[in-house]
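Hey, I'm writing a tutorial for new members on how sequence and structure tokens pair up, and I'd like a real worked example in the thread rather than a made-up one. If someone can provide the structure for the chain below, I'll link this post from the tutorial.
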Amino acid sequence: MFKKLILSAATALAGVCVFAMLAAADTTGFAAGDVLNIRQVPAMDAKVLGELYLADPVTVIATEGSWCKVRYNDQIGYVHKDLIVFDRSQVPEPVPAVVEEVRSVPASTSTSTATSPKKSTASGNSSAKSAPAPAAKSNGSSVGQQIVSCAKNYIGVPYVWGGSSPSGFDCSGFVQYVYRQFGISLPRTTYSQVAMGRSVSRSELQPGDLVFFRSAGHVGIYVGNETYIHAPQTGRTISIDNMAGRSLYAARRIV
């Protein structure tokens, strides 16, 4: 009997040791939600370091209570463990957004009322830029091309989660800000922006169209030749990137 107790205790101890070794080892997890906030500390109201989108991989260092401790851009952050899976096949399939086929831009936001971009009042940020007033439509230039030209003035401005000014933008804040310079009001979030304008196919894309990725969790402005300008993620700046090889979730024409 005594030998059986010793054997059971030894087996249990070995199991604990193996579990501890596995828990200490870094593991690749996958985002199981459209947009996951990576927090600086394990609390829902903590500062957001960045975002993960559906199926994005992330290195999980450990599990602490209801949180996964992760490595993100050479930083340590936390993601709620209910939103992380460790088997890629368990990532839920994207649910297509239900949008109206056509939604006109209100007359009060017509492009004929385009205004000059406002200069940022933020101080101490050398990255802040202001764009010249959009040029009048001429020489065959479309309003969409003018929107792209305006957007290019902010290349190099840093990504800031929740940002919507030239001192820092997130993806939807950038799109909203640029369109506002042409008198066009767009909603603040990608999930509302994807319901604006009218749907166009990838083959029909024109400069100035909005392009959505990751189940409408990310948005940019189409530039042309399979490229788009956007606010990518924490640690990057407003950039023009290639769409080749990327799955386009939706495209909307506003102008």
